[in-house]
Amino acid sequence: MAKARTLCAKDGEKMAKTAAKAKTSAFMKPMQPSESLSKIVGTEPLPRSEVTKKIWAYIKKHDLQNPKNKREILADDKLQPIFGSKKLDMFQMTKAVNKQLK
After folding, report:
1. Residues 6 or more apart in contact with residue 41 via CB below 8 angstroms
2. Model's pTM, two decimal places?
3. I need a surface site. Which of 28, 58, 59, 74 has the fewest CB within 10 A?
4. Which residues contact 84 (CB under 8 A, 6 or more apart)?
């Protein structure tokens, strides 16, 4: 039974190290949004994941997905400077947004 406890302790240590790495990953590092992006997500530095969540909330709130092709986003006046065009495929959105983060 002592072995089982030792294995659990080692597993716990591994999980703690993994969680620590996740907290410090580049993906979770707060990034400063550009002026045009800050009109949607705010001016405070945010991790990329939060920026993406806020953009999707904006897209859904303003009904900016193409009804015939849900993968296509129809940019309004605030999104057009970020995307660089009036339409953008949702898979290209991340690349366009990353250019707006410092």
Report:
1. 33, 50, 51, 54, 55
2. 0.73
3. 28
4. 96
Judged on CB neighbours under 10 Å (0-12, 13-18, 19+), 1 is exposed
Integer CA distances (angstroms), 79 to 16, 29, 86, in order: 39, 23, 8
Dist CA 67 CA 49 (whole Å): 25
Contacts (Cβ under 8 Å, ≥6 apart) of 45: 30, 31, 32, 33
What pLDDT digit, counting tens, does each position of 61-93 carry? 999 999 999 999 999 999 999 999 999 999 999
Tokens of 86: 């009036």
| Residues 6 or more apart in contact with residue 35 via CB below 8 angstroms | none
The residue type of 98 is N
3-state secondary structure (DSSP) of residue 40:
helix
56 close to 76: Cβ distance less than 8 angstroms? no
